[in-house]
Specification:
mainly alpha
């Protein structure tokens, strides 16, 4: 039984980490590459290309959010934690909720324009910054579970 639990734990951690990498990497790519490229296109082509990119990424985005949420809940509930861990975890969850809300708002935007009224540029940047904060706090939380720390 212990082997099964270890395998399940490793798979859950892998799914959680890979979904976070892909989710944050997609936002970073959209902010640093996609938005500048789309902004040099004529208005009609830009709107069409942005709507197509949004539509293609939407299913992937929702899948990544679901995988990271489910695997994160499993990872959190699988072992007991200290009060300090819970405090840092709560702060991390605020940043994660910001990321989830922002990506859902972007993915369901009726405009389909990556840079509609200049707002999505800031949204993508805020996802990237919140992602860095989440990774930093996650590294700290991981160190709390190591012996001797």
């Amino acid at each position: 039984m212990a082997d099964f639990e270890l395998i399940l734990h490793v798979i859950s951690r892998f799914l959680h980490i890979i979904s976070a990498i892909l989710l944050l990497g997609g936002a970073f790519y959209a902010h640093r590459v996609l938005t500048p490229v789309l902004n040099v296109l004529p208005e009609d082509k830009r709107m069409q290309a942005a709507a197509g990119a949004q539509l293609r990424y939407r299913t992937t985005l929702f899948t990544l959010v679901a995988i990271s949420l489910l695997s994160g809940v499993y990872n959190f509930l699988s072992v007991p934690h200290s009060k300090l861990y819970h405090m840092a975890f709560g702060i991390k969850m605020l940043a994660v909720l910001h990321i989830y809300a922002t990506v859902v708002l972007w993915a369901t935007s009726p405009y389909g324009d990556v840079n509609f009224a200049g707002k999505n540029k800031h949204r993508l940047l805020s996802i990237s910054i919140a992602g860095i904060i989440v990774v930093l706090i996650s590294a700290y939380l991981r160190s709390l579970s190591m012996p001797g720390f």
